[in-house]
Design brief:
Length: about 60
Amino acid sequence: MMPVSDNLTEGIRLDMEQACADLRRAEAAQRLRDDAAVRARLLACRATIDAILDMWNDAARRPG
């Protein structure tokens, strides 16, 4: 497996930090009100995190 470039690594790291912060806010919103809109927001946050992890894995597999 090849190391991911520093720029790509930093970009993915920043994207993940933002996605995790969004997830924490969605989880806090769910504690206040558990309805369909909040659950949809949680699903969207988790899907974003999953996509970022897929991007990381794809980038790590690319030949240098």
